[in-house]
Amino acid sequence: MASKYQLKDSSLYIEGSDVPKNKLHITSSEEIHELEKELIAEAYVTFYDEFEESTLFDETYFKALHQRTFEALYAWAGEYRDFNMAKGNSRFCQGAFVEGESKKIFEQLKADNFLKDFENAEKEIFAKKIAYYKCELIALHPFYELNGRITRLFFDMIAVYNGYKYIDYSTVTKEEYIDASIECVQFADCSKLETIVYNGLSK
Length: 203
Prior knowledge:
By secondary structure, this protein is mainly α. It has helices at 29-49, 59-70, 98-111, 123-140, 147-161, 174-187, 191-200, and strands at 6-7, 85-87, 90-91. The protein has 7 helices and 3 strands. The protein is globular.
């Protein structure tokens, strides 16, 4: 299987496959994806257990989610990409601007107190905030790989901090979620994602 991304530098992957070069020298797509799932599941337990009132959902925390989850597997865990990346007709933030645009997003998130004040707010308002920032990070697509899973983990932690369960995406098809993500990247429209988040939030 060819890489699912169009990359300026495709040396990230084992030639002719969608398997990123990794520390364990795994060449099987099925095996690498299964291991990634296991690492994500472990990360949910780890970061949930580390919750404190003082936890800040800032850029350092966001990068740490990626680094600590995947550092046993990938040398580039937690590092932002510096090359251009696209998927289908969706072009993510240019590699040269990822660091700067990330700083802007997280400065804005800081002004929103890292979404820590929504436990007693209307669910609609909270969903709108999550969808907005999630759209921004989807369009940024800062990491080499595994952006979607880390972004979900990030906002699941924010949801739990505010007294909600992890956001439930089980009623949404893969195609519906991808469509909502495409709207974010191509048209800066987070309305479909907002509906998905709203329906997935529960106390």
